[in-house]
Each structure stands twice: as structure tokens, then as C-alpha cells.
Fold this protein.
Amino acid sequence: MMTIRRAAYPLALLIWLVLVSVGLAQSLPMATPEEVGLSSERLAVLTETLRANVAKSEIPGAVLLIVRKGKIGYFEAFGALDPQTHTSMTKDAIFRIHSMSKPITTVAAMTLFEDGKTGLEEPVGKYLPQLMKLQVAADNKPDPEADPSKLTLVPTNRPISIQDLMRHTSGFTYGFFGTTPVKKLYLESHLIDGDPTNAEFVDRIAKLPLSYQPGTTWDYSHSTDVLGRLIEVVSGKSLFAYEKERILDPLGMTDTSFYVTDPAKQSRIAEPFEKDRRIGEGAVIGDPRQAGKWESGGGGMVSTAMDYARFLQMMLNGGTLDGKRILGPKTVAYMTTDHLAGVVAPGPYYLPGPGYGFGLGFAVRREAGVSPFQGSPGEYYWGGVAGTAFWVDPSEKMFVVFMMQSPPQRVHYRSMLREMIYAAIVE
């Protein structure tokens, strides 16, 4: 009898592990499009469009996932995982998600907020003293001919707050696009050369002037990278270690990280066309197989469509998934509310566009009209510079994850997919 029990124990353990993995998958069960109020006919048009665009070499490949009413109504892979080797795209392909890292980092910071370890009104300099006293460019208008060495600098009117980091009103900026004098300084400073740690990165950015007075202007920026370092200081852990503990492991996001060091996973990394590796001035698509020190909370993560879907379902559920609470529903609602209207001016490179404000980590739709693409009031979205994108529409109980590595096509596809997917809603 004892022999039978000893032999059966590993089998029982194996069965338990299988059931656990099935349970993870079943939190987003498959359904027919009609079961979730989508039209199979309209989705077939979408499928054929994507296939045709792959055939024309407009994009190398893509993965598209649509979840509505808690079920997967559409999940398809198209084209090539690697157009150089002609490897077929797979649904579990790993993509560089760039700025889709920002919502994950912001959620991580909000767990500290819920734990009472930080307050959004607190000055960032409380935790990162080198950022307490910064200077601001007094005149920072777009000008291709401007000489950044002739900027007039003035002190900040108030310190940068943690809320400013989350909603891009800190005064920090990016240097890889745009022509303001401060952007030119960022580009010339080579902020991330030499693979800095998050601490070293903050030391570097602290030496540069701000584009605008804190709290006055929306300017897309390294703010979330600074937020990542703040998380490290407050938590006492590396950014990835903290995100893994509080978000990635509880949600079963096993393929989401900053680097893909596991050789068994490296063959799943999606690649762009070789000619499309440039993502901005002085910036190219890197190789996540090579582990580095910098964990960019604003743009350094990789993920899969299903991993990111689990993150978005948690948000749509009000902060929980499979019985694991990441945030409370009031916190999720607060994050996905506009934090700009009537207080903050849009900068010259206001990416959310007309009809949208910005919350904490997400662009937030203010109204049904105004924007040139479809959506519902309260919908929130963001995307990555290499082509990935998502949006969550709570009123439709729907979210969409689109993964591709094609920087020049990112804007077109975000708009096109919205039109075609909203056209597929029948109830």
C-alpha cells in the first residue's frame, strides 16, 4: 500500500500543477464572438485586412486579442515573428512594449500609496533629494534653430510631486522627438548611454533643466523612469523585484520582465523589419536578450498579449484577478480619471489628442466626440513606440491588446483597429 502512495504522489502533484495552469487560463476563457456581443462577420474583415497587410509587407506580423464581458472573443496571430528568418508569429510571442511599461510602473507606485508609504502630493525630492531644487527653462518653445546653450533658467515655483510624475506634469521631457531647446539638451546629454542603474539615471537627469514649471504643462517624459527609481527607494527593492512581487507573480504574468535572459524564451521574441529598428532621434529598438542594469519603468519592459491582457482584466475588474487584489476599486477609478482638466495645459507635443485628458499612467477619454477615433467616455489607453497598444472601455466591458514591432505603422494601426473593432460590436 505504501508503494502505491509513493508512486501516486508525484502524479497527484503533476495533476495539481496542471489544474493551476488551467485555472490561470480560465480566468480569461474563450468564447465565440457572438457570445460576447461581437460580429464574426465584421471580425473576419479585420482578419483579412491584417493578413493582406502582412502579405504586402506593411507590417512583419502581429497578435491581436479582444476581451469583452470577461471572455476572449478574438485572439489571432498574423505574419512573421521574425521577418529575417521567416519564423511564423505565435500567440505567445514576446514583444518590446516600451511605454506600455508605464501603466505597470504606475500601478506599482500606487500599491505603495495604498500601503500608506507615499502620498501623491509629496515632493519627489523627499525620496530623491537631488530633485528637490531644479531649474526650469524660461522659454522652451519648439524651434529647430534654437541654441539650447542660451536658455534662460529660473528656479521651480514648487517641487515636483509624485502625482506630477504619474501624469507627466513634472517638467521632465524626452529627447528623441521634438525640437524644443530642452529636448535638444536631453539628446546631447546621452542620458542612458553606458547602461546606468536607475539611481545613476536620476543623478544624470537631475543635472538638466525642466521644460516647464512643475504642475503646469503636460509634456511626455522620463517621469515614469524617475517614478521607477522612487519605487526602489521606498520599497528597498529593485524595480523588477518589487513589480514581480506585487503585480507580475500574483497576476501570472510569467513572460513580463525587463530582459529575456532565459534561453528557452528567446526564440519567442518578435522582431521588426531590419529597416524599422529606429524609434526616434538617437534611439533604436534594442535586444532584450542582453541583460542590462537599467530597468526603465517608462519604456523597458517586454510582455506577451496574454500577460498584458491579465493586467488589463485586473484593471477592468477594479483591481483584482483570480482572487488576487493588486489595487482597490477606488484607486483604479482614481487612476483612470482625468487629472489635467482646468489645471494643466497641453504641451506642444500633446500625445493623447483631442477629447482626451490624462490620469495616472493612462490617457483618459473625456467625451464620446471630439476625438477623430471611436471610444466611450471613461475609456483609457496607451501604447508603445515600437507598435504595441491597448485600450480599455469599461462601458463596453471590453479591452483590446495589439502587439506588433513596426514603429512607422503604430499611429495608423491604432486608429484603424479602433474603427474596425467598434464596428464589430453588435450588442
User: Anything to note?
Assistant: Residues 2-26 form the longest helix (25 residues). Residues 1-25 have pLDDT under 50 and may be disordered. The two ends are 58 Å apart (CA to CA).
